Amino acid sequence: MISAWRYNESDEDQRELHQFTPNREVPVSELVELGILYWNVDVTGPLYLEKVDTISHERGYKNKDIIDISKATLPNFEEKIKTFFEEHIHEDEEIRFILEGSGYFDVRDKSDQWIRVACKQSDLLPAGIYHRFTLDTANHLKAMRLFKENPKWIPINRSKETDTNQFHVEYLHNIAKEL
Asked: Which pathway does the protein contribute to (predicted)?
């Protein structure tokens, strides 16, 4: 099951939990209202790739690749981790199927406050949602990334211009329709 909570701003390393005491959990229903979809597909199961292919077909994903994020596999590791943690959007749905390791996606709620979503199996962020990503303290995550078209993983950092970005505006429109 997916786990999420209100993000507690502090001077701690971004890879720490950043929870309040007591923790302020965010229900799955609130994540759904934000347009966050979630599947849990057991990577140890014999047919997990068939399940991923089914989701890909249903969502229109045509391409995929594998990214392995660790000190041993990613050049300029610390610099990249800081870059991933800058608030941004993408112009395509962003789905990561977690094969190994774990990390966090932070997303903005409707009040523009951060929610931290722990990712361990299969999580999806819709196109246009402001977010950032970091590993947890284990410093390793291997994921299959799924794309609708050719990979569009260039982050568009948040600014006044991104607030009017067509994909962000479409995201907000789609969320409003679903409420």
From this structure: Amino-acid biosynthesis; L-methionine biosynthesis via salvage pathway; L-methionine from S-methyl-5-thio-alpha-D-ribose 1-phosphate: step 5/6
